[in-house]
Amino acid sequence: MLQKDTLEYVIGLRRELHQYPEIGFDLPKTLALVRRELDKLGVPYTEEFGKSSIVATINPECKGVTIGIRGDMDALPMQEETGLPFASKIPGQMHACGHDGHTAMLIGMAKELKAREKELACRVKLLFTPAEEYIEPGCKLMAEDGVMDDIDFAVSCHVGPDSDTGRIAIRNGGINANSMGFTVEFFGTSSHAASQQKGKDAIAMAVEAYTAMEIMVAKEFSPNEPRLFNIGVIQGGQTNNIICNYCKMFGSSRAHSDEVSEKLITRVREICEGIAKMNGGEAKVTVNKFLPYVLNNDAVAEQLRISAKKIVGDDNVFVPGRGLGGEDFGFLSRKKPCAFFRLGTRCSEATSHVLHTVKFDLDENALAIGMKIFLQFVLDNQNGIAF
């Protein structure tokens, strides 16, 4: 189904990308590589959506259905310890989430679809997105700039070391969680520790609020409502004999519904502001990042499932449980019908390390399966999907 040299081509690109991982929107080498390959293939593209993104178009003059395929490009601030011959050459940065594979596959799709361009009854847009791991998500900015306006439906995938190569996970409806990152700042009054009655201790406010929030999460939500809440950082104070006048918390929450997410952050504000006021200080709660959960449209997910079964067989396409991970494809899935699948990439001990770890690697042969599924989906649905 793929051209005989496509997998080798994509593996080469993935290894080149892997050596030069870049963070957030700061993707000069990655973007240069994508431009270079699209130019070679004769595929037109634009960089008008959001920032540090590329949207390439196959069959641009076609007036029929437009299908989107998305792949993210950014890496993580981690020191790689895989020992691979093509390991990261940038200290403290690593493709520990497989986005190098996603980008390489999307370029491979440009190659495959360009070769079939005259046979297609549809237009295909390839969305190279930045900053999936970043505070300001790339897909959010692209969605706000209208990248989905002329796309009828879109698909994406993520590599998955928790499943063997050849196994594909697809579920309908919500597939992950709303992911929220927030900061709480406590403002007090400094004083010498010998005159502590003259101060308002911001550390004491933070400690009291921490305990109250933990109790809130345990006691105010139904045990049947999946949620995650964590305060990962508390920073405050300068030395041992000064009452602290400023303390900061960094927290994270995950939930399967918008209602639970809203209740969590509302109660965080109420608790922190109330405790600060009670102790003579003030509190400010800021939501730094919010990723809506990915919503798999029933019709698109079913068509994706049919296409995947043609590639890997009925027994290798399964319905996974719903997790608490975050993914900025959720911004696109709230604009138009979308579907997202997990691509199994485990074939050995070396490829079984979980995402976001310093030894993460993937089975490169799985990239061919991902591309075949994307290609089959385009061919199967080039005349549209009945919603």
Polypeptide structure, described:
By secondary structure, the chain is α/β, with parallel strands linked by helices. The chain folds into two domains: 6-176 and 293-380, Aminopeptidase (3-Layer(aba) Sandwich), CATH 3.40.630; 178-290, Alpha-Beta Plaits (2-Layer Sandwich). Helices cover 32% and strands 24% of the residues. It is built from nine helices and 16 strands. It has helices at residues 6-19, 28-41, 99-115, 138-144, 202-219, 258-278, 298-312, 330-333, 366-380, and strands at 45-46, 54-58, 66-72, 123-129, 153-164, 168-169, 173-174, 178-187, 191-192, 227-236, 242-243, 246-255, 282-291, 295-296, 317-318, 338-346. Strands 1-2-4-3-5-16-6-15 form an eight-stranded mixed beta sheet, with helices on both faces. The model has no long low-confidence stretch (mean pLDDT 97).
Distance between the termini: 28 Å
| Uncertain residue segments | none
The appropriate CATH architecture of the largest domain is 3-Layer(aba) Sandwich
Overall average residue pLDDT:
97
Let me know the largest β-sheet: 8 strands, mixed
Total strands: the figure is: 16
Please give the share of residues in helix. 25-40%
CATH superfamily of the largest domain: Zn peptidases
Shape: elongated
Q: Please state how the strands of the largest beta sheet are arranged side by side.
A: 1-2-4-3-5-16-6-15
CATH fold-level label of the largest domain: Aminopeptidase
Number of individual domains? 2
The CATH class label of the largest domain is Alpha Beta
Radius of gyration: 23 Å
Number of helices: 9
Question: Which strand-content bin applies to the residues?
Answer: 15-25%
